[in-house]
Amino acid sequence: MTNHWVDLKNADVILVMGSNPAENHPISMKWIMKAREKGAKLVVVDPRFTRTAARADLYAPLRSGTDIAFLGGMIKYILDNNLYFKEYVVNYTNATYLVNPDFKGPAELNGLFSGYDETTRKYDKKTWSFQMDEKGLPKKDMTMKDPNCVFQIMKKHYSRYTPDKVSSITGTPKEKLLEVYKAYGSTGKPNRVGTELYAMGWTQHTVGTQNIRTMAIIQLLLGNIGMAGGGMNALRGESNVQGSTDFGLLFHILPGYIPVPSATLVDLKTYIDKLTPKTKDPRSVNWWGNRGKYITSYLKSIYGSNATKENGFAYDYLPKLDEGMNASWLNLFDQMYKGKFDGFFAWGQNPACSGANAGKVRTALTKLKWMVNVNLFDNETASFWKGPGLNPKDIQTEVFMLPCASSVEKEGSITNSGRLAQWRYKAIEPIGQSKPDSDIVNELFLRVKKMYQKQGGAFPDPILKLTWNYGAKAVNTHLIAKEVNGYYIEELVDKKANKVVGKKGDLCTNFVTLQLDGTTSCGNWIYSGSYTMKDDKQVNMMARRKKDDPTGLGLFSDWAWCWPVNRRIIYNRASVNMEGKPWDPKRAVIKWNPNKLDPKTKKTGPGWEGDVPDGPAPPMADEKAGKYPFIMRADGMGALFGPGLADGPFPEHYEALECPLQANLLSKQRVNPAIKMFFDKKGGLKEDQFLSCDMRFPYVATTYRVSEHWQTGVLTRHLPWQAELQPQQFVELSEELAKEKNIKSGDKVTVKSARGEVWAIAMVTNRFKPFKVANSTVHQVGLPWHFGWQFPEDGSGGDSSNLLTPTVGDANTMIPETKAFMVNVEKA
To answer: What is the structure's pLDDT at 472?
Structure first.
């Protein structure tokens, strides 16, 4: 989230699209309803009439996989009706930048952008560049009338997204489209703000990244980024998903979103030179320009005194990716299926049910020599070898089950969707032989280290020289938290002010004081400041529980700790005008005060008040010292034109890999041209096949969650009271489709796709309605993904809906497309 949960109460319009907070994030509805009490409008766009939609002021249905068409139409509506916040757009976005005149878009190239290579399925982005002046800065047209400026190119790009065309693609009635556009478009004024809430309903598509990009463009056009009640707000599917991502859960990032090095980056100097964004604009903060300090401090954190200037701070010890290597989920299990792995740790997960194309995943597990399952309960992954269709005698995989403690049986922090890191204390001791994850990792590491000490190895140093001082048996999580925050290895002195910034051995104040020369350590730069020094005492900022809220905006700045530097709303410098005055004084996130009182010195001077600002620099009206608001971008501007993505600088509508249409109604390019194809005309695994516009699979399907179950149900299917509420797999289908198929509620049916099938109990409902798409009737059905064969033990719960979903992912992130695919439904 750029904002946070409580901040939802400050919005004038709340757009819920790609999520279902009433059922999946129910506590958030408290803040949504508070906004409604003050007159805010709740707008819900969803293929299904959900519990969130039931509380909405306006509901609009749309066919799964057509969000970009819907939002692209909103961009056109905003531009055509001059609803955009012009002063914000001109000064805080790249709308004025002049683009390479050789750039061409889908309107000219039948759905493609210039530079496409059909053989590699990749773009050469040379033409996606900006025209530069003699200083090396992007040329601008502040009037935004030049045909090559971003604003005009964007206007041309989305001119094709007419209400009639969008309605024909999405199945959303035209009058509903225009109602939504009018409601949300009303927030492009200084005194009105809109926010967007999304989740996996947007991300799990072959255009998932661009779904979010489209809405980000809308938020920038309307001036809703940085504002209280605004922002782009991802509703994470678990209370610490944000925290796990922050700490490098994904293959391509180290903690703090620092890129994992590739093998071609031969030393630390090369890494820093190649991967540190640069700018020639003195008014751009370009905060990622500090990446060298963060990677160096990280290396000092994990290798301590073994990381020296002479050995490049132990950079050689870091694992390296092969150039172009992608080790994301789909590729990992594809390689496992092909026998490329000996072993696998399934830690706190259940891929036999949660993975797209779960049948392939289960087969892949049979190719392993060993697998370790770390979980509270046995599950479909641990017991895959005795699952449906498998003969245990044919499987050689040795499976180890390590029981782990639940969240209430261990101490540590979680970081929620709003970037709020909260410390949790242990309520009870772990049950039976279960252990906290940290203790399991600790024991595993110490045993592996002992083996290296005895037996040597090809390259033992990365293991033997790690700093690992968390406890011999039971891990002290406070020691981990302090290492994450970082230490001053040497005394740090501000030579200009002749002042000691940090004493040797003290915890770092925050990431501003991290150094490039190896005199600071930090396990995760964005968390520096979370466990720090106050009056020469160590303070766990994440454990704070004060409820003071002087602004009335719900910032609660003394409750726990929010990264970065306890800033509650990111890019808050965009919430003020060029002089530092809030666009909306009634919702002032920050404001510039020429006579701010320093509570320590009792002296007055210029400074920011309110939330922690995006840096101390004065407002942009100060031509010498003023800085641009979007500090994490090299140019300091919000990106309407985004040349960094794999599939285009503007979002473009493409159909899902499997869809009911033979052609894309906007262009000749049916699917995202930059996605990786696991199965095509050239071949591929049978398990990866897909069938689009095939009468054997005529219905659009999607997957979702219900309130009564958690993820794949491992934690909730074992609880009788939860299982009683939602006992088995079901499929929701419209009354119209049910009549057509002669299916009644309670009937047992079979749902099939090109990859597999599941039985389900029919739930006939008016929550789904047929869509009118391209003058044809299109039906959609939906299934939850919480069930699996392993428990209940009698098999009465059914199996995973991911047996139906395809092996294909987003062009940028490779997140699987599980929210739009094709199935058939027949009576069992």
So the answer is: 81
CATH topology of domain 5-239: Dimethylsulfoxide Reductase; domain 2 (3.40.228)
Measured distance CA(532)–CA(545) in Å, rounded: 16
Q: Which two tokens stand for residue 239?
A: 């209370």
Residue 549 has pLDDT above 80, yes or no: yes
What fold, for 329-418+426-464? Rossmann fold (3.40.50)
- Provide the terminal-to-terminal Cα distance of the chain, rounded to the nearest Å: 43
Distance CA 241, CA 237 (A): 7
CA–CA dist 46, 678 (Å, integer): 29
Helix (H, G, I), strand (E, B) or coil at 311: coil
Smallest CA-to-CA distance from 217 within 651, 777, 798 is with 651
DSSP state of 230: -
3-class DSSP state of 398? strand
- Least-confidence region, from 196-205, 237-246, 761-770: 237-246
**What's the burial of 403, exposed, middle or buried (CB within 10 Å: 0-12/13-18/19+)?**
middle
Neighbours of 395 (CB within 10 A): 17
Encoded amino acid at 453, one letter? Q
Nearest-5° Cα angle at 74, 69 to 78: 150
Beta bridge partners of 246: none
CA distance 828 to 753: 15
Residue-wise pLDDT for 3-35, tens only, equals: 999 999 999 999 999 999 999 999 999 999 999
Residue 707 and residue 24 in contact, taking contact as beta carbons nearer than 8 Å: yes
CA gap 288, 280 in Å, rounded: 14
Q: Which residues contact 161 (CB under 8 A, 6 or more apart)?
A: 69, 72, 73, 75, 76, 653, 666
Pairwise CA distance, residues 565 & 616, whole Å:
12
Q: Which 3 state secondary structure label does DSSP give 626?
A: coil
Least confidently predicted of 236-245, 328-337, 629-638, 644-653: 236-245
Cα 692 from Cα 694, distance rounded (Å):
5
CB 758 within 8 A of CB 804: yes
Domain coordinates in residue numbering, the chain: 5-239, 253-322+481-530, 329-418+426-464, 572-610, 679-827
Q: Would you say residue 682 has pLDDT above 80?
A: no
Count other Cβ atoms within 10 Å, centred on residue 110: 11
Provide the edge-to-edge strand list for the sheet that holds 232-234.
Answer: 58-60, 41-45, 13-17, 194-198, 232-234
pLDDT confidence bin for 527, thresholds 50/70/90 = very high
Cβ atoms of 73 and 161 within 8 Å: the answer is yes
Residue 627: the pLDDT is 97
* pTM for this predicted structure: 0.97
Query: What's 806's DSSP letter?
Result: -
If residue 731 lies in a helix (H) or strand (E), which one and from where to where?
Answer: strand 730-734
- 775 neighbors 758 (Cβ within 8 angstroms): no
Cα torsion 503, 507, 512, 516: sign: positive
Query: Angle at the Cα of 275 (from 271 to 278), degrees rounded to 5?
Result: 130
CATH of 679-827, one of 2.170.150.20, 2.40.40.20, 3.40.50.1000, 2.40.50.100: 2.40.40.20
Q: Mean pLDDT across the stretch 279-293?
A: 97
